[in-house]
Design a protein that fits this description.
With 242 residues, this protein is mostly beta strands. It has two helices and 14 strands. 25% of the residues are buried.
């Protein structure tokens, strides 16, 4: 997750030690950044709110005066991170991202924001209201990519699968990789005793081999289960990525 920080200054006896994570402050927007906003508060302090902690997950209609809560203070860099997420401001439970179950497919999530160096923000159609989900750039495609555009555009529809959740931000995490839609195993709960699956060997040790299913789940095959006959040197029989 990318964040921008601005150092604070000790002025007229006001010290960074006065700030405590969880403190609610009245702030003003100083600037809109590519991945969030910069705020000033308590006259002498500045900090940043990244896009995952804005009231709205898109940088539109940012008003000048806002309420924010301090998330963290880094004494070494003197950086301050804040949040404007409604559930964190109000000390309530995060939004119902749990309505999306890990491993579920969604055919028409809409891209509502593109972060060129970090990923895509999606709107997952659900009842009674859509749920936001984020796809990291590493999960956009099977091959490594450095530029999300022009392959993906705001407003476009994609085929996504749910990976999990970021509970602090109240956000689901998704994946667009073609390999994530292959095979019958995507999460550990999909694995059943006796099922036959295809997997790649990702490491071979003296005690067995580590395997990876197309969905990303990893498993260990003990040495005694690698062959019907006894194997003393498994590296000679099994090769990585075979």
């Amino acid at each position: 997750m990318l964040m921008w920080y601005l150092n604070t200054k000790d002025l007229k006896g006001i010290s960074l030690d006065l700030l405590i994570p969880g403190m609610m402050v009245n702030a003003r927007v100083n600037a809109v950044l590519s991945n969030g906003i910069m705020l000033s508060f308590l006259t002498y302090f500045t900090g940043t709110v990244d896009v995952f902690h804005l009231k709205e997950l898109v940088l539109d209609n940012i008003i000048a005066a806002v309420n924010a809560r301090i998330l963290f203070i880094d004494p070494s860099t003197r950086a301050i991170g804040l949040t404007m997420n409604p559930h964190l401001l109000q000390n309530t439970a995060p939004p119902r991202v749990r309505i999306l179950k890990a491993g579920e497919f969604y055919d028409q999530p809409q891209i509502i924001r593109i972060d060129k160096r970090s990923g895509l923000l999606l709107r997952i159609p659900c009842e009674p209201s859509p749920v936001p989900a984020y796809v990291a750039i590493s999960d956009v495609a099977d091959k490594e990519i450095h530029k999300i555009e022009p392959k993906f555009k705001e407003g476009g529809l994609v085929h996504a699968r749910i990976l999990g959740y970021r509970h602090l931000e109240g956000l689901a995490m998704g994946i667009l990789k073609a390999s994530a839609f292959e095979g019958s195993v995507f999460t550990h709960s999909d694995v059943k005793p006796g099922m036959v699956v295809k997997a790649k060997v990702i490491a071979v040790k003296n005690f067995g081999a580590f395997l990876q299913f197309p969905g990303g789940v990893k498993a260990l095959c003990p040495l005694q289960r690698m062959s019907e006959s006894e194997i003393s040197k498994p590296r000679k029989k099994f090769q990585v990525l075979s």
